[in-house]
Amino acid sequence: MLAVPPEHIDSHHFDRLMGEGQAALSADDPGTAADRLAQALSLWRGPALADVTAGSLLSAYATALEESRLRALELRVDVDLRLGRHRKAISELKTLVGDYPLHEEFHVQLMLALHRSGRRPEALDVYQRLRGLLVEELGVEPSGKAQATHQALLSSEDTLEVPIPPTATITVAGGGGGERSQDEWRPVAPAQLPPDMVGFTSRSGALDKLLGALVEPRADSTPVVAIGGMPGVGKTVLAVHAAHTLRQSYPDGQLFAQLGGSTSKPADPADILGDFLTAAGVPEDRIPVSLDGRIGAFRTWTAQRQVLIVLDDAASAAQVQPLLPGCPPSAAIVTGRAGLGGLASAVHLQLDLPSTADGVELLQSMIGRTLTGGETRAAELIVQLCGNLPLAIRAVGGRLSATRWPLKKIAERLIGATRRLDEVIFADMDVRDRLLASYRRLSEEERHLLRLLSLLPSPVFTAHGVAKLLQSDSEMVDGLLLHLVENHFVRVLAQNADEIVYTFHELVRFFAQEQVERELSYPEESEEGTMELL
What is the pLDDT of residue 183? Predict the structure, then answer.
């Protein structure tokens, strides 16, 4: 028998989150309920025990799990409808109605969502199709609830509208630049923070600086901390951990947004603000259309509240600026690989690599047990071969936890690997993938120089030496190296009055060499001029 602690089993996490969601609903806190139920449902990847040949006992258990999932779906959709998210719910409900044609609750919810979106004829049609199916398949009429909803649709009763008690007011700017009259809406304290990650290494200096900037901010400006650093260094982990540490200091809510700055399509600030206002309880049909209108509504909401906003993977200061509160006491934490220098009022924190001791602590937490003396020495070697990069250490730790291999074997694989980046991949933890996302944002000239630098005999170099090798202008090389430093592909090793000494992170150098191999193997896919430079 395999004895697994409950906290390592998804179904236990699902039950806990489901219970928290139901408790939040009982406490009339739909924002928290929506967050907990969404987290619970995110644990599902398909039907329960789908790849298991089940007998009667397991079949009954799988059925019970599936019933719990459907109940969580019902509750989460119900919360979405209470929060005015009816338009977003329509497409999901249409899918659910197709997948579960005899499930009346999904039909009732779809009728409500369509009605509140101004599509009453479609809502009535949903009822007629449900009734026809039930009569034909089972010979029964729809439930009393479905019939009552149908009758309310026919009568256009007010009971079908989003319940908005007169508990709070806000003045929102209209899409055309004017202002609507004050609208009453339900205040909600959103709780959108991702779970605090297991194995956070202390980094006491960086954490203390971050917390200090938010706990004791300047009185005349909004507290904002911008965290920079190379891909995989742990920016998001630090931001989320700090946000959880400060949760009690921001009782009016915590908002979280993934800005997609390292992707080819960064998030639109207008869309993020729409999501924030929805999470705050503003009905969807009362959210302004224009970006300026949404900025005004959001800053009005945060002005008298203590809200913490976490903006992850920002593309630029221009993307972030509309998402910041206008004044204290609300605050923000922003992470980004580059381009946040334009946030002039922010406290800027460059996150460096953790110590080897912290790296061993992180690896140990991933494995889930205390290391012995011999294992500690192997762990230190693993951390060093990972370049002390937390993402790489997590990936190796995940592989160790899954395979139960000895640490010495993993260390030997890392030493002997011809492509070390292949050894630091586990699940969605992929150092190569993170570096590739940043690499694609470089200019052609910067990519060319990066590939050439990776071929130098030594990973340590100066701008003068590179310019001499290329027979190129020193100022041009200086500019390219500056951009590579800003994007964390090259690091400043030392600096004196005459020149700057640069170096690579070990895994970045391996990555750049892989790009050279790729260009030579697939020249038809390379940019113009690559082969001449190489």
Answer: 44
Q: Which residues contact 248 (CB under 8 A, 6 or more apart)?
A: none
Give the pair of three-digit tokens for residue 183. Answer: 């609208």
**Confidence label for 175 from pLDDT (cuts 50, 70 and 90):** very low
Percent of the chain whose pLDDT exceeds 90:
37
Helix (H) or strand (E) holding 347: strand 347-350
Nearest-angstrom CA–CA distance, 450 and 513: 9
Buried b (16+ CB within 10 A) or exposed e, 333-342: bbbbbbbbee
Structure confidence by residue, pLDDT tens digits, 470-507: 888 888 898 999 999 999 999 998 987 778 999 999 99
- Contact present, 303 and 293 (Cβ < 8 Å): no
Cβ pair 317, 340 in contact under 8 A: yes
By three-state DSSP, how is residue 159 classified?
helix
pLDDT for the residue 405: 87
3-state helix, strand, coil in the chain (%, to 5): 55, 10, 35
The amino acid present at 215, given as its one-letter code, is V
C-alpha to C-alpha distance for 382 and 357, rounded to whole angstroms: 12
Q: How far apart are CA 215 and CA 238, in angstroms?
A: 16
Q: How far is CA 132 from the centre of its chain?
A: 43
How confident is the prediction for the chain on average, in pLDDT? 85
Confidence of residue 236 (pLDDT cuts 50, 70, 90): very high
Q: Say whether pLDDT at 528 is over 80.
A: no
Nearest to 270 by CA among 300, 253, 295: 295
Q: What is the pLDDT of residues 117-169, one digit of tens each?
A: 778 888 999 999 999 999 988 899 999 999 998 888 888 776 777 654 434 44
Letter string b/e over residues 312-328, b meaning 16 or more CB atoms within 10 A of that residue's CB: bbbbbbebbebbbbeeb
Q: For the chain, give me the number of helices (H) and strands (E)?
A: 22, 12
Say if CB 432 and CB 425 are below 8 A apart.
yes
Q: Which two tokens stand for residue 191?
A: 């709780």
- Provide the whole-model pTM: 0.64
Give exposure, 118-138, as e/b (b: 16+ Cβ within 10 Å): ebbebbbebbeebbeebeeee
Residue 241 has pLDDT above 80, yes or no: yes
Phi, psi of 199 (to 5 degrees): 85, 25
Residue whose tokens read 């980004």: 336
| Rounded distance between C-alpha atoms, residue 292 and residue 294, angstroms | 5
Helices 30-42 and 10-26 pack at an angle, to 10 degrees, of: 170
- Report CA-CA distances (Å) from 260 to 21, 197, 464, 488: 28, 20, 36, 18
Contacts of 278 (CB under 8 A, 6+ apart): 83, 84, 85, 284, 287
Whether 531 and 519 have beta carbons less than 8 Å apart is answered as: yes
pLDDT by residue (tens digit) across 287-318?
A: 888 899 899 999 989 988 899 999 999 999 99
